[in-house]
Amino acid sequence: MKKDKAxxxxxxxxxxxxxxxxxxxxxxxxxxxxxxxLTVKQVAEKLxxxxxxxxxxxxxxxxxxxxxxxxxxxVANMLEKTYTSAAHVLDVDPALFKFSKEGxxxxxxxxxxxxxxxxxxxxxxSMQARQFQLDQGAEEMPRRVIINRVVSSVSEKRIAEFxxxxxxxxxxxxxxxxxxxxxxxxxxxxxxxxxxxxxxxxVRKVKKK
Length: 209
Hints:
By secondary structure, this protein is of the alpha+beta class. It contains 6 helices and 5 strands, in the order βααβααβββαα. It has a domain at 9-142: Winged helix-like DNA-binding domain superfamily/Winged helix DNA-binding domain (Arc Repressor Mutant, subunit A), CATH 1.10.10.
């Protein structure tokens, strides 16, 4: 059941709250609850897991305000809760990502691990779920999966152009969701675009004039 609701921005400004979304399973739960209302059992079915494995994660996400109870009802003398996302867009305070040569840089590691691990788990589950569908007689429909890593030396001017085009492409990809139908296939897009440095002892400081 889709819930027509304006996107809420959730500001993460402390390490404890950031830790709450470090688990890739919690990322997948939040993605499933974005724009729709589901019970723990329904989320578990979609993830191919037992509901008992999700209650702890639901509790943590609700505690920190990432998800919220949308509806409650009695089922077989038990209270059943229906959840939805309370944080459609996460804004993480840049101050959390200050790199330290001496520190363990936990915030940066959390961001990287939650994004990369969630992508890995989502892709593996998707492959398993699709094979299950095919085994049940679903129609074959070849789709392209792109996984690639490229390191290229590019001028700063061209990099700025690439960044602008990439941001526009991501925004266009996100905008498609608004016009999508319930029957449309979800697609996932993970992006990491950054300057790649190597240790070089020959580098010298340039004095500003």
